[in-house]
Write a structure and sequence with these properties.
Strand content: 25-35%
Number of strands: 17
Strand order of the largest sheet: 8-7-17-16-13-14
Number of helices: 5
Oligomer: single chain
Structural class: alpha+beta
Low-confidence stretches: 134-171
Distance between the termini: 85 Å
Mean pLDDT: 76
Order of helices and strands: HHHEEEHHEEEEEEEEEEEEEE
Radius of gyration: 20 Å
Largest sheet: 6 strands, antiparallel
Length: about 260
């Protein structure tokens, strides 16, 4: 009489690897041969959550829910077609891991994949933050010293680094205007554009990802960051990963065009 061996429980990492195998018909295996592998990224995200635990009233343990992954320029360019899908898988797996630990997060787990200039091929950086829906509370020192809260994660643009803010002047009305004349005022803090429930500014355009791009307004400048969208984000006809906007800039997401306006 033979007995079946007991199956070991499947770990979060194993489930993540299994989902990657079926994603984009194995394209990940080709993309990541010899470069950074997604499992390494998920491992690092788990370590960041562990390292930045905070005990809340009632004994609950709060951990970061927002993870920004900086990849080397080479890895980022190879990953670009799959960035949105990978970010979604990483977020799901991290949420499973946090749930298994019985930790607490604010809202949904969010993963954003960005280009990290200065990183060598195969290298990556994970920045973990507690994101409450308006302001970002960094739990890892950002790459620049913000003059005043709210503090936003570092971003990369052609000029390199954050750079001095372009002064639009305090108290001015900053808004986006669509081609059909609709106006979307921007508030201080972060605004996510997309067609999903998590977006602050929802646009009914099938060419737009659920979380397509983010606008960060600190009172002095507005920074537009693509969130690993499927079809990319264009400013004045040029595809961008992150850029500081100037009045009159034309932003294209899917088939939607928005003009950046500053009044006053």
């Amino acid at each position: 009489m033979s007995s079946e061996p007991e199956e070991e429980p499947v770990s979060v990492l194993q489930r993540f690897e299994k989902r990657l195998e079926g994603l984009v018909e194995g394209a990940f295996a080709k993309v990541f041969k010899g470069v950074v592998h997604p499992v390494e990224i998920l491992n690092a995200m788990q370590r960041e959550a562990e390292a930045h635990k905070a005990i809340l009233a009632g004994g609950r343990t709060l951990v970061p829910n927002r993870y920004v992954i900086d990849l080397s320029p080479y890895d980022h360019s190879r990953l670009a077609p799959y960035a949105a899908a990978l970010a979604q898988e990483l977020a799901q797996s991290q949420a499973e891991f946090i749930g298994e630990q019985a930790w607490t997060v604010y809202g949904d787990v969010i993963v954003e994949i960005e280009r990290g200039d200065g990183l060598d091929t195969g290298m990556f950086r994970v920045t973990a933050e507690v994101y409450t829906g308006g302001e970002v509370a960094p739990v890892q020192q950002p790459a620049y010293d913000a003059p005043a809260p709210p503090a936003y994660p570092p971003y990369d643009q052609a000029g390199g680094g954050y750079g001095p803010p372009q002064q639009h002047g305090g108290g001015r009305n900053v808004r986006l205007v669509s081609g059909d004349g609709r106006t979307y005022p921007l508030q201080m803090g972060s605004t996510v554009i997309g067609r999903g429930d998590q977006a602050n500014l929802r646009l009914p355009d099938v060419g737009i990802s659920r979380r397509h791009a983010r606008l960060d307004f600190d009172g002095a400048q507005v920074v537009l960051t693509d969130l690993g969208s499927t079809n990319g984000t264009m400013v004045n006809g040029q595809r961008v990963s992150a850029v500081a906007l100037n009045p009159g800039d034309m932003i294209q997401l899917g088939t939607t065009t928005l003009t950046f306006r500053v009044d006053g």
